[in-house]
Amino acid sequence: MNIPRAAALLMLTTVAVSAAPGGSGSGGPALSSPAMGPLHIIGGPATGGCITGAVRLPSQGPGFQTIHLDRSAFWGAPQTIANLERLGQEAAAAGLPTLLVEDISRARGGPLPGGHVSHQIGLDADVGLDMRPRPPIVLANLNGTELRSLVRPDQRDVDPSVWSPREITLLHMAANLPDVDRILVNPAIKQALCREVTGDRHWLHLIRPWYGHAAHMHIRFRCPAGQADCVQAPPPPAGDGCDATLQWWFDQLNAPPKPEVPHVPPPLPAACTAILGEAG
Questions:
Q1: Are 192 and 158 in contact (CB under 8 A)?
Q2: Which of 84, 90, 96 minimizes the C-alpha distance to 217?
Q3: CA 216, 184, 23, 169 torsion: positive or negative?
Q4: Distance of alpha carbon 20 from alpha carbon 79, whole angstroms
Q5: DSSP assignment letter at 158
Q6: Which of 74, 153, 170, 187 has the fewest CB atoms within 10 Å of its CB?
């Protein structure tokens, strides 16, 4: 009998993930197991949401491995998982070191620890950017591995001891994956791309500056076809983003600090209550 790839992956990983530390091991059904059934994505990156029919990225595969198993979650839409596996294979073929993958989404989506509004619908993934040569990380060190920042402490440019053409290659590969909506990186990384990329620059349109993101890129994929309850974000602005809008981020480094405003996450879509196992 031929089993669809996503279904086979789901059967293989459901047992493994229940015994794996973090990301899915405790905290009720929303953390421990996916909601069975066809893919159904509810919500969007600004609203939060949930997912049924998620599959789990294997702990390792050609060109990639997951880290921070004690606090990260590795479930996503089948298209997301397939794209991450493809990125690992392409990176390995290009001679890059093993990609380190952090958060994707929980088994049924919903909020992650720390208040993330994104990473809730199986369409977002964090992948480390440091491409300096290194061997794969052994199991005992996975949880303690910390990704190296590519940005100088003053936040005004990349760190030349870490930044290299290898990181540009990885970002180019990621931007060319199918159905990428945008890729979030630190403004200093975007600035370095604007300065150094020559020839084909159309893919820079998808690389967007955002707070943090000095050690990893945040890849966001578009809503899959047929997902009427998935809220698609507006497309990135036209152009390559190497204009005054980029300078704005650096101008903020000179601005007086603003008072912190407590973050209040938006309420989840009502349809997510049952999916996340909170009904009753």
A1: yes
A2: 84
A3: negative
A4: 23
A5: B
A6: 153
E strand map for 114-241 = 124-128, 180-185, 207-209, 216-221
Q: Which residues contact 197 (CB under 8 A, 6 or more apart)?
A: 168, 204
- For the stretch 127-182, pLDDT in tens is 999 999 988 888 888 898 999 999 999 999 999 999 999 999 999 999 999 999 99
| C-alpha radius of gyration, the chain, whole number | 19
Local confidence band at 115 (pLDDT 50, 70, 90 cut-offs): low
- Tens of pLDDT along 37-79? 999 999 998 889 999 999 999 999 999 999 998 888 999 999 9
Rounded Cα–Cα distance for residues 16 and 107 (Å): 13
Of the candidates 73, 216, 74, the one whose C-alpha atom is nearest the C-alpha of residue 147 is 216
30 φ/ψ sector (left φ>0, alpha ψ -120 to 50, else beta): alpha
* Spatial distance between the Cα atoms of 206 and 195, rounded to a whole number of angstroms: 16
Q: Which of 155, 142, 145 is nearest to 191 (CA)?
A: 155
Of residues 30, 2, 32, 10, the one with CA closest to residue 78: 10
Tens digit of each residue's pLDDT (9 = 90 or more) over 171-218: 999 999 999 999 999 999 999 999 999 999 999 999 999 999 999 999
Q: Are 131 and 168 in contact (CB under 8 A)?
A: no
Q: pTM to 2 decimals?
A: 0.87
Distance from C-alpha of 182 to C-alpha of 207, rounded to nearest angstrom? 6
